[in-house]
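Q: Convert this sequence to structure tokens.
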Amino acid sequence: MKKISISLQAAIIITGLAAFVFMLWEPHLEGRNAHSTLFQIYFNDPFLAFAYLASIPFFTALYQGFKLSRLYGQNIKQSEAVLKSLRVIKICAILTIAFVTIGEVFILSSNSDDPAGGVFIGVIIATGSVLVAVAAMKAEAYVKKSSA
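A:
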């Protein structure tokens, strides 16, 4: 039980660090930012600011998942803390879907030459968020049923 909890926590930390590093590193690789200064990259792109704002629910859900795995390691499976973490994860997944939908509308309404890459990434993120939301709902229902 303890080994599984530590493995889950390590996976969550690695996922969070990888996403954080990618979010800071990727804007420097875009074609339009190849010769831009840091100020131009981070302060002249409203979509990048939106992407950073939209990442807040993702990192909140990772934190709640970390808390949930810690509770699992302590063999606490039916408590109010578990239900609260699952509810927050579900809400964060739904918020991520909403942010991705708004981002997709922004990408499709802009005068871009090739929006297919951004749209595909958005579809992948939304699909993953739907899976997380459904899993959190099912787990929440299971915990409620087993504690009753």
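Residues 2-147 form one domain.
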